[in-house]
Protein: Response regulator
Organism: Sphingomonas suaedae
Amino acid sequence: MSLLPVSPPTPQSRPGLWLVEDDDALRRALQLMLFNRGFDVRAFPSAAHALADAAADRIGVLVADYRLPDSDGVALLRALRGRGWAGHAVLLTGFPSPTLEREARAAGFAAVLEKPVPHHRLIAELQPPVTPAR
């Protein structure tokens, strides 16, 4: 039996993910973890930096902090939706509330996760939903 070497995913084969988090240490830790889980991660410290990125049309997933220095994650997703972006979005927050949950869901977030979020929980929320076979 011969073993073939396993190649790491190429940037073209990795799903594109935007990470918008103002805490430098947390942003870097999440960026590395998500990269190691197979995502092509573009990380930004603010909503303005993310919105200025020309690669928005190639990004399929958004992971955003709720509290950002120049905006909030819900407003960021609304701006992206206004540009026609239809990707999957997950909101991170250290300040969860039923009101925020409703607002985030109404804006199009698939999940609202409380910080600190366990890595396995975030990864589970980033997986595309499975449609049962009929």
User: Anything to note?
Assistant: The chain has one domain: 16-126.
